[in-house]
Design a protein that fits this description.
2 domains, Arylsulfatase, C-terminal domain, Arylsulfatase A, binds calcium ion, about 25% helix, binds 2-acetamido-2-deoxy-6-O-sulfo-beta-D-galactopyranose, Alkaline Phosphatase, subunit A, Sulfatase_N, alpha+beta, Sulfatase_CS, 4-stranded antiparallel sheet, about 500 residues, signal, hydrolase
Length: about 500
């Protein structure tokens, strides 16, 4: 009896224990399947396909960018949606082709917000999934509704389209206002020195790059001859806000600090950070720690500076114990340019470096180098290192992240390549519309169709082939990556079918 009783007790204990451990492991399963990864998009400004050493071109060494590419998935056919900044950023945020929005052009610093308040955006979507969201760095998607008073809270802006926290420059480093805004408020602004901005005319008595060359530390080549800030002539006129003006050489460190602070603050809950770096866009102003380091002049130096920042940022994730729970997407908003309006030795000191890699064209161009950019996904322990030739566009990021985080929201133009992002599938886009300064071209499979466009073949100021031609152009990238052989005439059938597919998406 005693024996029986003790056996019975043992049995009951076993049953209870098993049930308990089953419940426990079910709970753990649930927890791991609902645990959402942090998401960081590191977005460069004008970094070319060949500017990153992991892409096997050029002579610049970018060890921290390479760390992401070599430890994650390196995409060889990853595209920005446009060959310029504002349209690319708009498309990235909304998953919508930029040519659907007639205002998606390179914006002045006074342009109204480009993203509609009702539009779906990555941060809005992720917010609903429980994410803390932030943007740090270059915005350039417009602010306000047309009449911005920079001395009041500027809105609508990033905080009105899904970002809980924003620390941004309004437009570009070469455009006024040359100040930082935190959650819509200009930082360091003194009430007795208000800011006035105009893109039409100068304010009385204010020096300009055009009229006061003696005040310049950087010379302008084309454009960039309006207000002078820190010895650098800019686009647009600005008066006041002396104490609020940024120090160009400190910008990289400044944004890095803000990005790190956000990660440290939000480490205990899922977060999304859009870390939009300003390099290597003009004016190129490396911190003295990096000046002269590349031997390629300021353009090379600021790429090394950005690379260092990425290393520091990744170290922050590691120190916070977040590396294995964070998906990092690294890319660039458009292709490379050397002389983008200042004399800064980018051309003279280039040496053997090839910012476009094996591709034709560059920033502003419908040729490949305009939009094909470095594109990397990194997630320690989840993404096995590898290379993928799947064709992806940045408009696919929204839908892929939605799928990954359990959201059922989708943009109409984007596709879900979450498995490809994680290296678990080779599936990519079948076709893609490319955009450059409101012109469009069409890629399907290995073929690219560029319709006839008026306008110069080469933008002489920046010395980049734009893709304009009076005739149709048709290239087979599988045999001719550098787009040297126009096959339009000898392949009328291919041309016809490409054109029909293009028109079906793009409209007449
Ligand atoms: C161009 C600027 C160029 C750059 C570009 C925007 C001139 C002559 N050129 O208009 O320097 O600022 O706009 O670049 O003003 S982007 O990467 O933000 O699209
Ligand atoms: Ca850009």
């Amino acid at each position: 009896m005693i024996r029986f009783r003790s056996e019975f007790v043992l049995l009951v204990a076993c049953v209870l224990l098993t049930t308990y451990s089953c419940q426990q492991s079910a709970k753990e399963d649930e927890a791991s399947s609902t645990q959402k990864p942090n998401i960081v998009i590191i977005y460069m400004d004008d970094l070319g396909y060949g500017d990153m050493s992991a892409y096997g071109a050029g002579t610049l060494e970018t060890p921290n960018m390479d760390f992401l590419a070599n430890g994650g998935m390196k995409f060889t056919k990853g595209y920005a949606s446009s060959a310029t900044c504002s349209p690319s950023r708009y498309a990235l945020m909304t998953g919508t082709y930029p040519w659907r929005n007639k205002d998606a052009k390179i914006l002045p610093g006074t342009a109204p917000l480009l993203i509609g308040l009702n539009e779906l955006t990555i941060p809005k979507m992720l917010k609903k999934q429980g994410y803390a969201t932030a943007v740090v760095g270059k915005w350039h998607m417009g602010l306000g509704e047309g009449q911005v008073d920079w001395n009041e809270r500027v809105s609508p802006g990033p905080n009105e389209v899904g970002f809980d926290y924003s620390y941004i420059m309004a437009a570009t480093q070469d455009r006024v206002p040359t100040v930082y805004l935190e959650n819509g408020l200009v930082q360091g602004l003194e009430p007795d020195d208000p800011i006035s901005i105009s893109y039409q005319e100068n304010f009385e008595g204010e020096p300009t790059g055009k009229d006061n060359p003696e005040m310049l530390t950087m010379k302008w080549h084309h454009g960039h001859n309006n207000s002078i800030v820190n010895g650098i002539p800019r686009i647009g006129f600005m008066k006041g806000g002396e104490k609020a003006k940024w120090v160009d050489e400190e910008m990289a460190d400044h944004f890095l600090e803000k990005a790190k602070a956000f990660v440290q603050e939000e480490r205990d809950e899922p977060f999304f950070l859009f870390y939009a770096m300003q390099q290597p866009h003009v004016p190129r102003t490396p911190h003295p720690r990096f000046a002269g380091k590349s031997g390629m002049g300021p353009r090379g130096d600021v790429i090394l500076e950005a690379d260092w920042c990425i290393g520091q940022f990744m170290q922050t994730l590691e120190d916070a114990g977040l590396l294995e729970n964070t998906l990092v997407i690294f890319s660039s908003d458009n292709g490379p340019v050397l002389n983008d309006g200042y004399y800064d030795d980018a051309v003279e000191k280039l040496g053997d470096h090839t910012p476009s890699g094996p591709l034709r064209g560059g920033k502003y161009s419908l040729f490949e180098a305009g939009t094909r950019v470095p594109f990397v996904t990194y997630w320690k322990g989840t993404i096995q290192p590898g290379q993928s030739d799947a064709m992806l566009s940045q408009i696919d990021i929204l839908n892929s992240l939605a799928s990954l985080t359990g959201s059922d929201e989708r943009s109409a133009d984007g596709q879900d390549f979450s498995k490809t992002f994680l290296g678990k599938s080779d599936e990519g886009r079948e076709s893609l519309v490319l955009e450059a300064t409101t012109r469009t071209a069409f890629r399907k499979g290995d073929w690219v169709l560029i319709p006839p466009y008026k306008g110069p073949a080469v933008n002489a100021n920046v010395d980049i082939e734009l893709g304009n031609d009076p005739d149709f152009q048709l290239y087979d990238l599988s045999k001719d990556l550098a787009q040297q052989q126009n096959l339009a005439e000898e392949n009328p059938d291919k041309l016809k079918s490409m054109l029909a597919d293009f028109v079906a998406i793009r409209g007449e």
